[in-house]
Write a structure and sequence with these properties.
seven-stranded mixed β-sheet, alpha/beta, four-stranded parallel β-sheet
Length: 494
């Protein structure tokens, strides 16, 4: 096994592995990158974000929309650039793990009786609800009449024909951004001797950091080391960087497959049911919420505050609040709120103290930033450094109850790094395993500039540009948010 200590400025050891068979292969390691996030407002009608110029009076608008959708969701493939690329029979055997023998033609199977492959024409329906009205809870409509338009995306999985010989593959993996439960579970889908049991602990075998070398340096390093598969684990910004690498490789006519695996603990990537690490984060967040509840419930006029992850999206705070059943107030970035005033959070806390004797508040880290002093500080990934809304709320609660002469015992818990560093739970472990395997299948199938995800319970391939245009956010009109409000009983704090 070769060892590389510095890859285009990355400061960690990178094993590069050559694999003898596809069924044994499931990844290797590399790089760190910097990428900008493309963020825009989520529009009520999808057409506004996708194609704002549609004449709905034209009877053919639906067909044209579907044609445009199919073009946008076309998966980039090696054959788009290399006309002379010819597929070979897959060495991946879905029904057995038989070793390569003389029965194989040139080391590759030719037995057509094997089945279990995914056809390239298999599709998964992107949207499964036919909303009858734009006023339906959580409605996402193409046009004001909520016309049903079928939108199909590519199904993930092993193909019968592949475009890389496994023994010629030099694969690399990069884990970017902060820690997230499940990183090692995805990495583990490479040679088993290298990664045995790494999933039993949290963190990343490769290490993580923000920032890194520019795209040109990364691609130069890939050329120098003859890397022909790159698997990129990260969120929106990382995927934007992966897409730039894909474009640069195409510009240089490099026969390389770039495949993303969505890693964001906040669950804020578009079009996907969930991203890995999210279920674990929600589960672990409940431990902090339960501790806050016990502290608050056991004290005289106790108030527990829990700050959870969620820079732009409040999914963790929402679902942890809903799952725990112990939260009285849930604050998320998607919804503005007032602390003071007749309808503010502080007034409601007073009501809870006077009626229940205690209260528990959950707040996402990106919530209420308008209440804090602005900062121009940026982290290495180009994100604005957020003000600490949890500490701010804690201080404001102390001041408020002191001013009105009511005793309040306030406990503040920030479990952020405890949640990020823990081992993935069973649900995330399975998700990570399947995502990692499907990323490998996609690369061998010749796709590049794609990411793998789960959509309506099925695993799919999506072109990277379609999932990074803006972060997925909690819809205040969704049934899930309504369920949270029913659970907490909180009013609108405006």
């Amino acid at each position: 096994m070769d060892s590389i200590s510095r890859i285009a400025g990355a400061k960690f050891t990178v094993p590069v592995i050559k694999h003898r068979s596809y069924s044994e292969f499931e990844s290797s390691i590399l790089l760190k990158m910097r990428a900008s996030k493309k963020i825009s407002e989520k529009n009520r009608f999808l057409v506004e974000a996708v194609n704002p110029i549609i004449d709905f009076s034209d009877p053919g608008w639906k067909n044209r929309f579907q044609e445009d959708f199919e073009k946008r969701f076309h998966l980039p493939h090696l054959t788009d650039i290399f006309d002379d690329s010819h597929p070979i029979p897959s060495t991946f055997c879905p029904k057995s793990r038989r070793p390569i023998t003389e029965d194989f033609a040139d080391g590759y199977p030719s037995d057509e009786r094997w089945n279990g492959y995914v056809n390239n024409n298999d599709r998964v329906l992107l949207k499964v609800i036919h909303f009858s009205s734009p006023t339906s809870a959580g409605a996402e409509c193409i046009d004001p009449d909520c016309t049903w338009v079928e939108q199909w995306v590519h199904r993930a999985g092993p193909r019968e024909k592949i475009y890389f010989k496994p023994e010629e593959v030099k694969a690399a993996i990069v884990t970017c951004g902060g820690l997230c439960p499940g990183l090692n579970d995805v990495i583990r889908q490479l040679s088993r001797k290298v990664v045995q049991n790494i999933h039993l602990g949290g963190g990343s075998l490769l290490g993580v950091s923000r920032g890194g070398p520019n795209i040109g340096d990364i691609v130069d390093s890939m050329q120098e080391r003859e890397i022909n598969m790159l698997f990129v684990l990260g969120g929106n910004g990382t995927h934007a960087g992966a897409n730039e690498i894909h474009n640069e490789c195409r510009k240089r006519k490099m026969r390389v497959a770039i495949v993303g695996v969505p890693k964001t603990i906040d669950n804020d990537i578009l079009l996907m049911d969930k991203t890995f690490g999210f279920d674990t984060a929600v589960e672990e967040a409940q431990r902090a919420i339960n501790s806050a509840y016990i502290e608050a419930h056991s004290a005289y006029h106790g108030i527990g505050i829990v700050k959870l992850m969620g820079r732009n999206s409040g999914f963790i705070a929402l679902q942890a609040s809903l799952a725990s059943g112990q939260i009285d107030i849930c604050l998320i970035p998607e919804l503005p709120f007032n602390l003071h005033g007749p309808h503010g959070v502080l007034k409601h806390l007073r009501y809870l103290i006077e009626t229940k004797g205690s209260a528990v508040l959950c707040v996402a880290e990106g919530a209420g930033q308008n209440l804090l002093a602005k900062t121009n500080a940026m982290d290495a990934s180009g994100n604005i450094v957020l003000g600490d809304i949890g500490v701010h709320i804690q201080q404001e609660i102390k001041k408020y109850f002191k001013e009105i002469g009511i005793t309040a015992d306030i406990k503040y818990i920030d479990p952020k790094y405890m949640i990020r560093a823990c081992r993935a739970n069973a649900s995330d472990g399975i998700l990570c395993t399947v995502l990692g395997q499907n990323a490998v299948h996609g690369a061998f199938a010749g796709y590049s500039g794609i990411t793998v995800g789960i959509c309506n319970t099925h695993y799919v391939y999506l072109p990277i540009p379609e999932v990074i245009s803006y972060p997925k956010q909690v819809d205040p009109n969704s049934r899930m948010w309504h369920r949270c409000l029913t659970s907490t009983g909180q009013p609108d704090f405006i």
